[in-house]
Amino acid sequence: MENLPAEPALRDTREITKALNSLDILGFDISLDVATGNIVIDRVPLGDQDWTPEDWDLNSEKWSELEGEITDFNPGFRLMDRPKWLRSPTALLSEKKTKSSIMVAVQAKDWVKDQLTRNRPYLALFGERCSFRKYIRNDASTHCERCLQFGHHAAHCRLQARCKFCHETHHTKDHHCDVLYCTAGKGKPSSHTVRKCTSCEETSHFTGDRHCPTRTRARSPAIEPPRETTPPPAE
What we know:
With 235 residues, the protein is of the alpha+beta class.
């Protein structure tokens, strides 16, 4: 079926299934292959002040209500799977939260991509504006290019920036060499930049190098398994 257009194939799934079954080809599915992406929607209402974790059980009507809000009032979004809370409702209730963040798999349409390039993209949910962002997976070996520490991404970092070349308190992209007549460009190391990793103290590489022994050990499940989600912003 090389070069078979998708739409005719989807219209003729019954005939295609019969033909493949006659060739003893079983256990397949015919569906349109679409690009998807995960986003995080922040400050989504959990319910009123008296909400309980049971409100968000697997078969709860709350999920259908939330999905309806996302798709009915935000026409550019098409959900590809059920949303999920970044943290368990039980933990959120213990902290007396009434709003939190969810992760949603959506079809990566041009409208979604365009929204993500804006300064503060948002969705309309339950009469409020809820900002959203691209989901970034974190684990123990994730290296922050802002503070040079492990365990989180620069997009969520609120710590002091530090340069991986000179270790001063500025962004690496703003680094410049003070040596007279040095031709190294802004944000680049020069031939005389002293290599030293602040994570392992070795002088064979800069901080964040993928071969850094500290980063390699952080990838080991025995130290810390990958976290399922990125931390939501402070509420």
